[in-house]
Queue: 2 jobs
Job 1
Amino acid sequence: MAGILRPFYCELCAKQYKMASEFEAHLGSYDHHHKKRLRELREAESSRAKEERQRREQKREEREMAKAQEMAAQAAVVAAAVAAPTPRSEVIMENQARCRMLMIRHHNS
Ligand SMILES: [Zn+2]
Protein backbone atom coordinates (compact mmCIF):
# COMPACT_ATOMS: atom_id res chain seq x y z
CA MET A 1 0.00 0.00 0.00
CA ALA A 2 1.90 3.11 1.17
CA GLY A 3 5.15 1.82 -0.21
CA ILE A 4 6.50 5.21 -1.16
CA LEU A 5 5.79 6.67 2.27
CA ARG A 6 7.43 3.71 3.97
CA PRO A 7 10.64 3.01 2.13
CA PHE A 8 12.26 1.25 5.06
CA TYR A 9 9.53 -1.17 5.87
CA CYS A 10 10.20 -4.87 6.29
CA GLU A 11 7.11 -6.69 5.13
CA LEU A 12 8.34 -9.97 6.48
CA CYS A 13 8.66 -8.70 10.01
CA ALA A 14 6.08 -5.91 9.68
CA LYS A 15 8.65 -3.46 10.96
CA GLN A 16 8.99 0.17 9.96
CA TYR A 17 12.28 2.06 10.05
CA LYS A 18 12.87 5.72 9.53
CA MET A 19 16.52 5.45 8.60
CA ALA A 20 18.12 3.46 5.85
CA SER A 21 20.89 2.47 8.24
CA GLU A 22 18.34 1.10 10.73
CA PHE A 23 16.60 -0.81 8.00
CA GLU A 24 19.86 -2.26 6.71
CA ALA A 25 20.82 -3.21 10.22
CA HIS A 26 17.48 -4.99 10.56
CA LEU A 27 17.97 -6.87 7.29
CA GLY A 28 21.23 -8.19 8.66
CA SER A 29 19.81 -8.98 12.08
CA TYR A 30 19.18 -12.40 13.56
CA ASP A 31 15.51 -11.51 14.01
CA HIS A 32 14.97 -10.87 10.32
CA HIS A 33 16.90 -13.94 9.19
CA HIS A 34 15.11 -16.08 11.71
CA LYS A 35 11.73 -14.92 10.39
CA LYS A 36 12.89 -15.41 6.83
CA ARG A 37 14.06 -18.95 7.54
CA LEU A 38 10.82 -19.73 9.34
CA ARG A 39 8.80 -18.48 6.42
CA GLU A 40 10.87 -20.48 3.95
CA LEU A 41 10.42 -23.57 6.09
CA ARG A 42 6.69 -23.01 6.26
CA GLU A 43 6.49 -22.52 2.51
CA ALA A 44 8.51 -25.67 1.87
CA GLU A 45 6.32 -27.51 4.35
CA SER A 46 3.10 -26.33 2.76
CA SER A 47 4.28 -27.15 -0.75
CA ARG A 48 5.31 -30.61 0.44
CA ALA A 49 1.90 -31.06 2.03
CA LYS A 50 0.29 -29.92 -1.19
CA GLU A 51 2.31 -32.42 -3.22
CA GLU A 52 1.43 -35.16 -0.78
CA ARG A 53 -2.23 -34.26 -1.04
CA GLN A 54 -2.07 -34.29 -4.83
CA ARG A 55 -0.31 -37.65 -4.79
CA ARG A 56 -2.96 -39.10 -2.50
CA GLU A 57 -5.70 -37.64 -4.64
CA GLN A 58 -4.17 -39.18 -7.76
CA LYS A 59 -3.82 -42.57 -6.10
CA ARG A 60 -7.44 -42.45 -5.00
CA GLU A 61 -8.53 -41.64 -8.54
CA GLU A 62 -6.44 -44.49 -9.92
CA ARG A 63 -7.97 -46.87 -7.39
CA GLU A 64 -11.46 -45.73 -8.25
CA MET A 65 -10.73 -46.04 -11.95
CA ALA A 66 -9.38 -49.58 -11.49
CA LYS A 67 -12.40 -50.47 -9.39
CA ALA A 68 -14.76 -49.06 -12.01
CA GLN A 69 -12.95 -51.00 -14.73
CA GLU A 70 -13.09 -54.17 -12.68
CA MET A 71 -16.78 -53.68 -12.07
CA ALA A 72 -17.35 -53.00 -15.75
CA ALA A 73 -15.44 -56.17 -16.65
CA GLN A 74 -17.46 -58.18 -14.18
CA ALA A 75 -20.66 -56.69 -15.51
CA ALA A 76 -19.57 -57.60 -19.03
CA VAL A 77 -18.90 -61.20 -17.98
CA VAL A 78 -22.26 -61.42 -16.28
CA ALA A 79 -23.98 -59.81 -19.23
CA ALA A 80 -22.29 -62.24 -21.63
CA ALA A 81 -23.26 -65.18 -19.47
CA VAL A 82 -26.84 -64.00 -19.31
CA ALA A 83 -27.01 -63.13 -23.00
CA ALA A 84 -25.43 -66.35 -24.30
CA PRO A 85 -25.68 -69.15 -21.81
CA THR A 86 -23.84 -72.23 -22.99
CA PRO A 87 -25.88 -75.33 -22.29
CA ARG A 88 -23.84 -78.08 -20.69
CA SER A 89 -25.02 -80.67 -23.14
CA GLU A 90 -23.71 -78.63 -26.04
CA VAL A 91 -20.25 -78.51 -24.47
CA ILE A 92 -20.29 -82.23 -23.87
CA MET A 93 -21.37 -82.96 -27.43
CA GLU A 94 -18.61 -80.73 -28.76
CA ASN A 95 -16.05 -82.58 -26.64
CA GLN A 96 -17.35 -85.95 -27.84
CA ALA A 97 -17.11 -84.84 -31.46
CA ARG A 98 -13.52 -83.75 -30.91
CA CYS A 99 -12.71 -87.10 -29.30
CA ARG A 100 -14.16 -89.00 -32.22
CA MET A 101 -12.18 -86.93 -34.67
CA LEU A 102 -8.96 -87.65 -32.78
CA MET A 103 -9.77 -91.37 -32.72
CA ILE A 104 -10.42 -91.42 -36.47
CA ARG A 105 -7.16 -89.62 -37.13
CA HIS A 106 -5.36 -92.13 -34.90
CA HIS A 107 -6.95 -94.99 -36.80
CA ASN A 108 -5.94 -93.71 -40.21
CA SER A 109 -2.29 -93.14 -39.38
ZN1 LIG B 1 12.67 -8.22 8.70
Job 2
Amino acid sequence: MYAWKRELLTFAALFAGGGRPRAAGGDVSRVPVVEFQAADSRTETAIGEGLTRLARAAGRLRVDTAVGKYAVAHDDGCGVCGVAVAAGDTFYLDSDAGEILCETHGRERRGEDD
Ligand SMILES: [Zn+2]
Protein backbone atom coordinates (compact mmCIF):
# COMPACT_ATOMS: atom_id res chain seq x y z
CA MET A 1 0.00 0.00 0.00
CA TYR A 2 2.67 2.49 1.02
CA ALA A 3 5.01 1.42 -1.75
CA TRP A 4 2.27 1.82 -4.31
CA LYS A 5 1.49 5.30 -3.09
CA ARG A 6 5.15 6.35 -3.19
CA GLU A 7 5.48 5.03 -6.71
CA LEU A 8 2.55 7.15 -7.78
CA LEU A 9 3.98 10.27 -6.14
CA THR A 10 7.36 9.70 -7.79
CA PHE A 11 5.68 9.40 -11.14
CA ALA A 12 3.70 12.57 -10.54
CA ALA A 13 6.86 14.46 -9.60
CA LEU A 14 8.66 13.27 -12.73
CA PHE A 15 5.73 14.13 -14.92
CA ALA A 16 5.43 17.59 -13.38
CA GLY A 17 9.09 18.12 -14.27
CA GLY A 18 8.15 18.22 -17.94
CA GLY A 19 10.95 18.13 -20.47
CA ARG A 20 14.57 19.08 -20.12
CA PRO A 21 14.67 21.36 -17.08
CA ARG A 22 16.10 19.83 -13.93
CA ALA A 23 16.95 21.50 -10.66
CA ALA A 24 20.40 21.34 -9.22
CA GLY A 25 20.29 18.45 -6.81
CA GLY A 26 17.81 16.55 -8.96
CA ASP A 27 14.62 17.50 -7.13
CA VAL A 28 12.34 17.72 -10.14
CA SER A 29 9.38 18.84 -8.06
CA ARG A 30 11.20 22.12 -7.44
CA VAL A 31 11.48 23.12 -11.13
CA PRO A 32 8.38 25.15 -11.81
CA VAL A 33 10.03 27.48 -14.33
CA VAL A 34 10.14 26.08 -17.85
CA GLU A 35 11.98 27.68 -20.75
CA PHE A 36 10.40 28.00 -24.19
CA GLN A 37 12.97 28.86 -26.83
CA ALA A 38 10.71 30.39 -29.46
CA ALA A 39 7.16 31.63 -29.09
CA ASP A 40 4.82 30.68 -31.94
CA SER A 41 2.84 33.90 -31.78
CA ARG A 42 2.26 36.88 -29.52
CA THR A 43 -0.57 35.11 -27.71
CA GLU A 44 0.25 31.39 -27.51
CA THR A 45 2.85 28.72 -28.17
CA ALA A 46 2.35 25.05 -28.98
CA ILE A 47 3.51 22.56 -26.35
CA GLY A 48 3.92 18.79 -26.21
CA GLU A 49 1.63 16.58 -24.21
CA GLY A 50 4.29 16.26 -21.49
CA LEU A 51 3.94 19.93 -20.61
CA THR A 52 0.16 20.10 -20.50
CA ARG A 53 0.08 19.36 -16.77
CA LEU A 54 2.38 22.30 -16.02
CA ALA A 55 0.43 24.59 -18.32
CA ARG A 56 -2.82 23.51 -16.69
CA ALA A 57 -1.36 24.05 -13.21
CA ALA A 58 -0.53 27.58 -14.29
CA GLY A 59 -4.05 28.08 -15.64
CA ARG A 60 -2.59 28.66 -19.10
CA LEU A 61 -3.42 25.51 -21.02
CA ARG A 62 -5.26 26.00 -24.30
CA VAL A 63 -6.52 23.07 -26.39
CA ASP A 64 -7.12 22.87 -30.16
CA THR A 65 -5.53 26.21 -30.90
CA ALA A 66 -4.32 27.77 -34.13
CA VAL A 67 -0.72 26.86 -33.25
CA GLY A 68 -1.28 23.26 -32.17
CA LYS A 69 -3.35 20.74 -30.27
CA TYR A 70 -1.98 21.99 -26.94
CA ALA A 71 -0.66 25.47 -26.28
CA VAL A 72 0.38 27.69 -23.43
CA ALA A 73 -1.26 31.13 -23.36
CA HIS A 74 1.04 34.12 -22.87
CA ASP A 75 -1.01 37.01 -24.20
CA ASP A 76 -0.53 39.03 -20.99
CA GLY A 77 3.25 39.13 -21.32
CA CYS A 78 5.89 39.06 -18.58
CA GLY A 79 4.51 38.93 -15.04
CA VAL A 80 7.37 41.11 -13.77
CA CYS A 81 7.97 43.85 -16.35
CA GLY A 82 4.86 43.44 -18.52
CA VAL A 83 6.77 43.20 -21.79
CA ALA A 84 4.86 41.27 -24.49
CA VAL A 85 6.15 37.98 -25.84
CA ALA A 86 6.65 38.24 -29.61
CA ALA A 87 6.78 35.36 -32.09
CA GLY A 88 10.26 33.84 -31.96
CA ASP A 89 11.02 35.19 -28.49
CA THR A 90 12.39 33.05 -25.69
CA PHE A 91 10.11 33.13 -22.68
CA TYR A 92 9.52 31.22 -19.45
CA LEU A 93 6.52 29.77 -17.66
CA ASP A 94 6.47 29.79 -13.87
CA SER A 95 3.83 27.15 -13.21
CA ASP A 96 3.80 27.76 -9.45
CA ALA A 97 3.06 31.45 -9.82
CA GLY A 98 1.04 30.98 -13.01
CA GLU A 99 3.18 33.67 -14.60
CA ILE A 100 4.80 34.14 -17.95
CA LEU A 101 8.26 35.67 -17.77
CA CYS A 102 10.40 37.37 -20.39
CA GLU A 103 13.88 35.99 -21.06
CA THR A 104 15.53 38.31 -18.53
CA HIS A 105 13.13 37.68 -15.69
CA GLY A 106 12.78 33.96 -16.43
CA ARG A 107 16.53 33.51 -16.10
CA GLU A 108 16.53 35.61 -12.98
CA ARG A 109 13.81 33.54 -11.35
CA ARG A 110 15.43 30.26 -12.27
CA GLY A 111 18.67 31.49 -10.77
CA GLU A 112 16.95 32.43 -7.56
CA ASP A 113 15.15 29.11 -7.37
CA ASP A 114 18.28 26.99 -7.77
ZN1 LIG B 1 10.25 40.72 -17.73
